[in-house]
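Reviewers of the previous submission asked for a worked example of the structure-prediction workflow described in the proposal, so we include one complete record here. The input consisted solely of the amino acid sequence. No template or homolog information was supplied to the procedure at any stage.
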Amino acid sequence: MLQGLIFDLDGVIVNSHPDHRRVWRTFFASLGRQYCDDELEFVVEGHKREDILRHFLGALPDEQLKDYGARKEALFRASTPEPETVKGLHEFLQQAEQAGLPMAVASSAGRERVEYTLKRLQFRERFSVIVTCKDVQSCKPDPAIFHAAAEGLGVQASGILVCEDAVNGVEAAKKAGMRCLAIAANGRTPLLHQAGADKIIPDFTAANLAELRTLFI
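From that input alone, the workflow returned the following structure tokens.
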């Protein structure tokens, strides 16, 4: 039976992918690199920042990775307005809270940005557990981040519903032995279906907790 929920951050809690694409494009342009929209889809598939930098720029020394990561994060904060939640999220969280379900966040984003974003939304107290890639040896599509979140919630993997929007995240959830609700925007349903999502919806206005419980029967 459904006993707990784990949420990704970007594209699930906050509608931040357009901002990330824009900021990454600006950052790469500052280095003299230009990438098309299709190439920039890589940045929204659940990869951590260091892996994104290596993917586009090749092998980089650790100090340069750290410097570039800090520059991208500073650019993001300076040029991004107040975070906007994914449509229907508030109501869905209320359903979960009324049902007494514990909730966690498991994100490839850095802890500082996760905490910062949740506090700006006044959501921090709604999640009893936060796990980032810095807390595990391997990140998505490795299932370690979801196992760590489930352990923090005190819930077995078989009782967890993961809310994801990235291929890497869906694959990680399924490898962890969890059910996965995928949030599919901009025609991404086929990709998330292929990754193994148990149910796919456009946003949380289509999420009904009673219906989602049937995934665990």
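The mean pLDDT is 92. We consider this example representative of the routine output the project will generate in years two and three.
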